[in-house]
Amino acid sequence: MKINNLNIAFKDLVLYKDFSLDIKDSEITCILGKSGVGKTTLLNAISNSKNYINCIDNNLKTAYVYQSPRLIPTISVYDNLKFVMDKEDNNLITKTLDAFKILDCINKTPNVISGGQASRVAICRAIVYKPDMLLLDEPFKDLDIALKKDLLTLLKNYMHEKKIGAIYVTHDIDEALYMADRILVFDGRPIDIKLDLKIDDSIDKKYGCEALDKYRHIVYNSLMNEGENV
To answer: What is the pTM of this model?
Structure first.
């Protein structure tokens, strides 16, 4: 995916001016930055790339997972997944729900399942759409740390197995380090890439592990506006 000279402004607020970025389709790219900097705006632009045809070269099929699950409350989990499919595939639905350990919710409606289960259903719904790339906007932000770790591991392993790339927005440095092949830190008006950091893929990554301390300090200092652009 290539973004070339993207310009986005809301009245006098210029978020993106001549902004360019290349993103590898098979990688997980995590974006961090202060609240309101414009991270979600970029995801919205990519998901509506037909409105930016001269700026965003995106031939990929993308699926968007929002901060809240946004499930249809009056129909079952099964029907929520079926709703986004070109053709109903019972086997794919059941296998995906089973992979994320929520097969027992298949006939339940979203109003009777937990927040963690709803987050997993939202991920499953995106996956059965069969995307080339996921757009993830803090999908686990309201979950407790133990559950979030479990879901991140499930998601990461599934994406690597199926070779699905992602652009993942978060405010959590450890979450980004655990998930990412590459980390970007956004800052400024208009937005500038403060940090572009490739994570060594030979590291046996665990959430919050010491092996990532070097990268943790680099990202933290960038977010705190210490040092030059990297």
So the answer is: 0.92
